[in-house]
Amino acid sequence: MKLTIKDIAKMANVSPGTVSKVMNGSGNLSLQTKNRVNQIIEETGYQPTFSAKSLATKKSNLIGLIFAGDINAEMNHPVFNEVVNAFKNDVGKLGYDILIFSNNQFRNGEEDYLSRCNHFQLDGCLIIAGDQIEEAVAELDRSDVPCVGIDLELSGQNSSYITTDNRKVSESVVTHLYLHQIREVAFIGGPRDSFISRIRRESFQYYMDSFGMKIRDGWVQYGDYFEDSGYEAMKHILDSETLPEAVYAVSDKMAFGALRALKEHHYAVPDDIKLVGCDDIEACVYSVPALASVRQDKEKMGKMGAQMLHDLINDVAQPNSIKVDPELIVRESCSFD
């Protein structure tokens, strides 16, 4: 029969609370009491259950993983899965397990992340951001639960966040094209209300203006980050009176859709029109031509998330924000040979 903390307490002739204090190394207990309890634990080979460990250490060693808002992504999403895998590996080395939350209704018809955190006694949460973030995330951010956001700016007293420097994403594309005498560039953004897409759009406009590169009517289109929307956006661009020298899409999947539209209309990439995507997912290497893309350091973001959340949980660091530099990866779709 598996022993419980109450069994150990009875054998040692102490209360379960005293056993918890011995396990936790807390409380003003006599050396004799500590030795007696530890001896019984050693002799019986007692392994505390999850609830007993939580009682003893005041920690569950459980991390909540929240896919918040309208993320339009499954677990195999080419961007988020790399972040999550890196986070999972590092947070596991730090002694934590992960409990995954969806934003499906939890109780009373509302997404209540804070109640779920309290119910499972979570030590902290990693929040992966989509669009149209629900109010329940803001409630969690304002709470005492340590949180780290990925592509989500959190401001709570126990919250930090990590994001790619999205202004530099567009800067790297426009600068590269400018340095190769490209002056006419079209833009395919994500949803108009997308926080990340808006930053990339504003930065694109800023650097186009800075270099004196005009954006023509019809050359700015919007999609939903996925291939079909990139295909439709590219067709609208091709309906313009004049065509751009290059097209910049803020996701690789939309760039793949744009590439399909260009091929259907018998335009050669990169000879007729250059094409650049964003995220540098694995498929970029295998497309024909291979897709130039702005790489987000997804592994670094996941690893940083694990370390930052661990520090917040253990009160060894103050909440802060980290912006990770992107890198433009030039491939055939934007070559100048």
TrEMBL record:
Key word Amino-acid biosynthesis present: no
This protein's record includes keyword Transcription: yes
CDD domains in the cross-refs: HTH_LacI (cd01392), PBP1_LacI_sugar_binding-like (cd06267)
HTH lacI-type domain mapped to chain residues: 3-57
Gene3D superfamilies assigned: 3.40.50.2300, lambda repressor-like DNA-binding domains
InterPro entries associated with the record: HTH_LacI, LacI/GalR-like_sensor, Lambda_DNA-bd_dom_sf, Peripla_BP_I
Protein name, as recorded: LacI family transcriptional regulator
